[in-house]
Design a protein that fits this description.
The complex is a heterotrimer of chains A (546), B (396) and C (191). Chain A is α+β, with helices and mostly antiparallel strands and 546 residues long. Chain A has ten helices and 24 strands. In chain A, strands 4-5-22-23-3-24 form a six-stranded antiparallel sheet. In chain A, strands 6, 11, 12, 13 and 21 form a five-stranded antiparallel sheet that branches. The longest helix of chain A is centred in the first third of the chain and has 31 residues. By secondary structure, chain B is mainly α. Chain B folds into two domains: 274 residues, no CATH class; 111 residues, no CATH class. In chain B, β1 and β2 form a beta hairpin. In chain B, α5 packs across α11. In chain C, α2 crosses α5. Chain C folds into two domains: 42 residues; 130 residues, 3-Layer(aba) Sandwich (Glutaredoxin). In chain C, β3, α2 and β4 form a beta-alpha-beta unit. Chain C is built from five helices and six strands, in the order αβββαβααββα. In chain C, the strands form two sheets. In chain C, strands 4-3-5-6 form a four-stranded mixed sheet, with helices on one face. Chain C has a two-stranded antiparallel sheet with strand order 1-2. The chains are: A alpha+beta (546), B mainly alpha (396), C alpha+beta (191). At the A-B interface, α2, α3, α8, β9 and β12 of A face α9, α10 and α11 of B.
């Protein structure tokens, strides 16, 4: 490793492009920033020595310098971008529409999108964002962020700290803003200094050489925002552990109390009532739109009571519940308790809660009720003894009736969405039952000889509210990362690092200036500073890439 | 309903004012021989009219808010109109930074196309669904729109840079690419022209088709070239469809949307063809002389500056505020919903843009292409993702 | 500073750099691997083979069985087949006869079959038990608490628990008679 001594006396580390102190281009290193083919100097990182571009010896060094390349970083970003795009080409597995003929991904993609869909599924693109290689891609971006920042921040910081007001002539005349004035009075120089100070430049002087600088802190913006991003990525890793993140779903029907999954049986929720409000179709303001769209919901709300189980030693044992929170959960207004958050997430209408049946004589055309009874669909009794001496026995109960593949009545789910019964009715003082099958829109007499008929007289329905329980202890880290990121980008993008150099030469001076963005602002600053002096305005030279 | 009418009229007024302002901005370029002060005068008039137009549009926004009781950001019409307004705002901001009139000559017409495009969607006042009924709607949506409006200026400057710099002497890949971008603008106009024409004629044809397990009826406002997949035409005495939309097209009303795209392409292509016939050269070549007096470095600077201003605002609105709201509404701040993914893609893209520019030295033309593509991604997210890829954000 | 010292310093610097870079890379690599592993393991089963089966207590509703409540810890010393089922689940229904067929034999040999019903209505369970003449205890998990405790996803789900209370085998899905018998043998108490 050879340190390079510049003619100004400063010793630069190997790989330096522009002397850290005076800015003189260092011979033999100009290819690094492509200065050898151009008039203007490339000012990125102040021409400091980025470690990674110098030593490539061991394997570790090679890996290091690979990730230290911005080119590699950009490639990783582009790959992530393309992968993300592909992931939206067809719906991801969790977004397969509920009304699809088959929601099984193995069937859905091929059925819906043909050959391309099948390939999409086989390549695993239907779970793109949780695939290992997508995660690796994001991880590599993280690695690149860390190493690029480490590798650039340190030398840049040093270079800006070491920089001297006295700059080499070559450094000045190879800046984008440059002018040379033959004759300048001392007073003029003094005035320029004063005016630059007034514009909040920090002016330093060394043997008549002047450096005016402002907004240096904007140079740290990129590193600050990268720290923010790294925190976000770390938070994402934390989030994949169950301690930091829980996600559960619970269905609770009106009036029901149930354990909240994911709380280890500590908490119960009672759904007092689910409320679905719709916008008034007569509302003058929205009449036209509602006529076209039909009813539009205005509120989903579950009035809940949250309980804490006090004797939770043995799960399943009847808990003693102590109410801790009464709340109306709405969209955008979740309930919070002890680090848990419960969100309104869905509902199911029209689940049956009870059914009332009447018994009438089969040949009575008016179907006048002789007797009636009500079955609670959640706790049906096996036998109902009625006032007029009738006895009704529930032979079978199908909460969600359907005919299975063998044509046998069965229940599709646990929930009374389509209740049906096989009822045995014992008329007074008989021991021979009359059997009938009865459900919504079904009423079948088993033998065809029944003297009495059972019919549905009335029913009650209720809502089932779907609620999501979340614990996310990583939010604070995401918030912190996002805040730091925003500070970083604002710092880096809404401020600019502007520098003006004045280099006395014979009776005149060289004037040069540099900024990392907003050259027009810099030009205005200089114009103001040299107003009414005979110092020449800097000439803007730029080499735009073709 | 006075407020609603007033609001509509204010929007018209804004549109007309933008049109007039464009003409004045045109004058700042045309008068090349005129003195500097004269140029300044027409520039001043133009920006004053632009600001008046912006205020009129702000008036539209406020009166509509008063009429409906919620900020008009709830559906496609309202959002896209607001985006148009944000674009004008972006232009005004950049104008006062750089004082360049010719930017208005390109920015305002494009913003007007966006506003006209917005009015192709249903414009009635509509109530908000519970999910949207929160102040985060205003915070999130308006910040996103402002960020996108400023990034739009980067697109305009990039496009102008390309028009100015790309050699039009003989046909090259580059000027064909540029022509393609200009052609896409024509497609937008084609969409507006065809939709407006048939809506004046009050065209209506109803189809019935099966979507998954449901039977759905859909109304075509444009003559059906493509019917819905397995669709049956119910209306009599209207044009029979020529063919059916392919089955892989997803989402609500895919067939009708596909049909609209076909009409936009046909109309846009005819308009483009006529323009080329009249000009007798590529549109890019015809625009090039307009930009003769404009400094390329200035365009490059504006293009970059607009990204540096717009990118943080977009990040704040499109990713951070969006996540906070998603956390409050659904309990997850990120759910890989297509719209979210496309916001991330946009963010990735501009991040790449900045890195390429800062570290790889992609200035000028390369930067110009990127600025144009970047805004293309934003429009893709707005139009294709909202209307084609079903997700949480599809309003219309 | 002598030449030797200089060389020494240079070597040190190089070594430090190598250590520093290796450390940073290893930390980053570790983070990525951790992220991927935790992400791929997101199958939610908290209790895996080898874990102690968590205790629970539920009312028993099979009228053919004399127990009133079932507490898992009371069955320590016996092998336990813990089955989660429901009447509306067809594969559950298909394996029930096998369980009933093997139950009397293996009960003698120190195994208990505990079939936790996830139905919400007792009556439905009663009718089902009558249909298949089941005699093993069927605790009723009406609130779904035990289901949540065991993180049971699709049913049937069966845990085979050793006399020491350790989960020996976990089966998601339907069991054939042969497989069922094989698993039961695995949890026989040592004589």
């Amino acid at each position: 490793m050879n340190k390079i001594k510049c003619e100004c006396g400063h010793i630069n580390p190997e790989g330096t492009v522009l002397c850290e102190a005076c800015g003189k281009p260092i011979e033999g290193n100009q290819h690094i920033d492509g200065n050898d083919k151009k008039l203007l100097l490339n000012m990125r990182y102040e021409g400091s020595a980025r470690r990674s571009q110098t030593y490539r010896k061991s394997f570790v060094d090679k890996v290091w310098s690979f990730f230290s390349s911005v080119k590699v970083g950009v490639w990783l970003i582009v790959l992530a971008l393309v992968a993300s795009m592909i992931g939206t080409l067809f719906p991801q597995q969790q977004f397969i529409p509920p009304n699809a003929e088959s929601r099984d991904p193995a069937v859905y993609y091929e059925a819906q999108f043909g050959m391309v869909g099948k390939i999409y599924y086989q390549l695993g693109f239907h779970e793109m964002y949780s695939s290992w290689w997508y995660l690796i891609l994001l991880g590599l971006i993280g690695v690149s962020l860390v190493i690029c920042s480490l590798d650039r921040f340190v030398p840049l910081y040093k270079a800006l700290k070491i920089q001297k007001p006295r700059r080499h002539e070559t450094f000045l005349n190879r800046q984008r803003f440059f002018s040379e004035t033959e004759e300048v009075s001392k007073a003029d120089i003094g005035q320029v200094k004063e005016k630059l100070r007034k514009q909040r430049y920090k002016v330093t002087e060394q043997n008549g050489h002047i450096l005016a600088e402002k907004g240096r802190f904007s140079r740290w913006g990129p590193y600050v925002n990268h720290i923010g991003l790294i925190i976000i990525l770390l938070a994402a890793i934390l989030r994949s552990t169950p301690i930091m993140f829980t996600d559960e779903y619970v269905w609770v029907r009106d009036g029901e109390t149930t354990v909240i999954p994911g709380t280890k049986g500590d908490y119960y929720v009672e759904n007092k009532q689910f409320i679905l409000d719709t916008h008034d179709p007569e509302d003058e303001r929205f009449k036209d739109a509602l006529e076209i769209s039909g009813a539009v919901a205005s509120n989903f709300q579950t009035d809940v009571v949250i309980y804490k189980a006090t004797n939770n030693d043995v799960p399943g044992a009847k808990p003693e519940l102590e109410p801790i929170l009464t709340e109306s959960i709405q969209m955008n207004k979740p309930a919070k308790f002890n680090g848990y958050t419960l969100y309104q997430s869905g509902y199911q209408p029209n689940e049956f809660s009870s059914m009332t049946f009447k018994i009438h004589e089969t040949d009575d055309e008016d179907a006048t009720a002789i007797d009636s009874f009500t079955i609670n669909l959640f706790e049906p009794e096996s036998e109902y003894i009625l006032d007029n001496g009738f006895r009704a026995v529930i032979d079978q109960y199908y909460p969600d009736y359907y005919l299975d593949d063998d044509g046998i009545p069965a229940s599709e789910t646990n929930y009374p969405r389509n209740p049906a019964f096989v009822l045995a009715v014992y008329p007074p003082e008989t021991s021979l039952p009359e059997v009938s099958f009865i459900g919504i829109g079904r009423n079948i007499d088993a033998t065809g000889e029944n003297e009495y008929k059972v019919a549905i007289q009335d029913f009650e329905t209720h809502f089932v509210s779907g609620m999501t329980l979340r614990v996310d202890r990583t939010l604070i880290f995401f918030g912190l990362g996002a805040a730091i990121f925003m500070i970083g980008v604002i710092q880096g993008m809404y401020w600019q690092h502007r520098r003006v150099w004045i280099h006395p030469k014979n009776n005149g001076l060289l004037l040069a200036a540099h900024t990392n963005k907003n050259w027009f602002g810099l030009a205005r600053d200089i114009e103001k500073a040299i107003e009414k002096t005979n110092i020449k305005m800097v000439e803007a030279r730029q080499e735009l890439d073709k | 309903m006075d407020l609603v009418n007033l609001s509509g009229n204010l929007l018209y007024a804004a549109f007309i004012l933008y049109l007039i302002a464009t003409l004045f901005f045109g004058a700042t370029i045309r008068d090349k021989r005129s003195t500097k002060s004269k140029k300044g005068i027409s520039g001043n008039i133009a920006i004053t009219i632009t600001i008046l137009g912006f205020l009129a549009q702000l008036g539209y926004f406020i009166t509509r808010w008063m009429a409906s009781g919620h900020a008009p950001l709830g559906n496609m019409f309202e959002f896209v109109t607001f985006l148009g307004m944000a674009m004008v705002l972006g232009f005004i901001i950049i104008y006062f930074m750089y004082r360049i009139g010719f930017l208005g000559l390109f920015a305002l017409p494009l913003a007007m196309i966006i506003i006209a495009y917005a009015s192709m969607f249903p414009t009635q006042l509509a109530p908000l669904v519970p999910t949207l009924n929160t102040s985060w709607l205003y915070i999130h949506v308006s910040t996103v729109a402002v960020g996108q409006g400023i990034l739009f200026i980067s697109f305009v400057a990039g496009l102008m840079y390309l028009i100015k710099k790309i050699d039009q002497k003989k046909r090259t890949k580059k000027n064909i690419g540029l022509e393609l971008i200009l052609y896409m603008i024509f497609l937008f106009v084609g969409f507006i022209v065809s939709t407006t024409t048939f809506s004046i004629m009050d065209y209506d044809a109803t189809f019935e088709y099966q979507d998954g397990t449901q039977i759905i009826e859909t109304e075509y406002r444009l003559p059906a070239i493509a019917a819905p997949n397995n669709g049956v035409l119910l209306t009599e005495n209207v044009m029979e469809p020529w063919f059916e939309a392919p089955g892989w097209m997803q989402g609500a009303d895919a067939g009708r949307k596909f049909n609209t795209v076909i009409w936009s392409v046909i109309t846009g292509t005819i308009l483009y063809g006529l323009t080329v016939l009249i000009l007798r050269k590529r549109v890019g070549a015809a625009l090039q002389p307009l930009l003769r007096g404009v400094k390329a470095e200035l365009l490059d600077e504006i293009m970059y500056r607009a990204v540096t201003i717009g990118f943080p605002i977009f990040t704040l609105g499109g990713l951070i505020f969006a996540s906070i709201w998603a956390q409050i509404a659904w309990g997850r701040f990120w759910g890989w919903d297509p719209k979210e993914v496309w916001a991330l893609i946009t963010w990735f893209f501009y991040a790449a843009f900045l890195h390429l520019r800062l570290s790889r030295g992609w200035h000028g033309e390369k930067s110009g292409w990127l600025a144009v593509i970047g805004f293309g991604i934003i429009l893709f997210n707005l139009i294709v993702v909202n209307l084609v890829i079903a997700g949480l954000h599809s309003y219309a | 500073m002598s030449l030797e010292q200089k060389k020494q310093k240079k070597r040190n610097k190089k070594r430090n750099r190598l250590i520093y870079r290796t450390a940073v890379l290893l930390v980053l690599l570790g983070a990525i691997i951790f992220a991927i592993v935790t992400n791929l393991q997101a199958d939610n089963t908290v209790y895996r083979v080898g874990d102690q089966a968590p205790d629970f207590q539920l009312p028993q509703i099979n009228k053919n069985n004399e127990s009133e409540t079932i507490q898992l810890s009371d069955l320590r010393g016996k092998g336990v087949m813990l089955n989660f089922w429901a009447t509306w689940c067809k594969p559950c229904e298909r394996e029930m006869p096998y369980m009933q067929e093997l139950y009397p034999v293996y009960k003698e040999r120190g195994i208990e079959i505990v079939a936790v019903s996830l139905d919400s209505t007792e009556l439905v369970v009663d009718r089902f038990i009558d249909k298949y003449d089941l005699t093993f205890p069927t605790p009723h998990d009406k609130s779904g608490e035990v289901r949540d405790l065991y993180k049971v996803g699709p049913i049937p789900s069966t845990f085979f628990i050793s006399p020491e209370g350790e989960i020996v085998e976990y089966v998601s899905g339907e069991l054939s008679l042969e497989r069922l018998e094989g698993y039961l043998r695995d949890i026989l108490p040592q004589k």
